[in-house]
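On clarity, I found the account of how folds are encoded harder to follow than it need be. Since the whole study asks how a given chain folds, the encoding of that fold should be made plain. For illustration, here is how one protein appears when written out as sequence plus C-alpha cells:

:::
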Amino acid sequence: MLTASRDGFFAWTSQRLVRDQAKLGVPTYLYYFDHGYPAADAAGIHAFHASEVPYMFGTIDRVTPLWPAIPQTPGERALSEAMVDYWASFARDGTPVAKGQPAWPVHADAKAYMLFADAPRVAHDLLAAPFALNEQVICRRRAAGNQPWNWNMGVISPPLPPKENCR
C-alpha cells in the first residue's frame, strides 16, 4: 500500500512531467535514486525520499545527526562525485555529464533514465506496470470531471469512476 502511494506521488509524477516536457521538444532527463547503505537499510528505509541530496551536493560527510550515517568509503565518494558532476554540468550547460561515467540520454530516447544505485547506469522504462496503472487512474478521474484527479492514490483514495472516455 505504501509503495503505491510513493510511486504515485513521487515517481509517476516526475516521469509524467518529463514525458510531457519531451513532447514539447524540450530535452528532459529523468533519474531514479535506489542506493542504500548500511545505516539506512538497518533503519528499514533504503533509498528514502531525498536520500540523494547529500550525494548530489557532495555533502555525504556532513549530514545532520538524525540522518542515517553515510559510510565514508571510496564507493560512496565515487557515487557522490559522479552525481555532483552530472548536476553541475546540467546547471551550467543544460546537459548532465560526468567524467568517466555513462552518457545520460534524454528521456524521450526509449524512455531512458539514469539509475543511481551502486554506480550510475542507464536504464529504460522506469516502473512501467505501476505507471500504466497510475495513468489509468488519473485518466478516469479527469474524464469524470467530478473528482480531484491529483494526489488521490493509495488506501484513502475515493472509488474509481467508470472507464468511459479513457483510452
Remarks:
- The mean pLDDT is 89.
- Residues 2-23 form the longest helix (22 residues).
- The chain is about 40% helix and 10% strand.
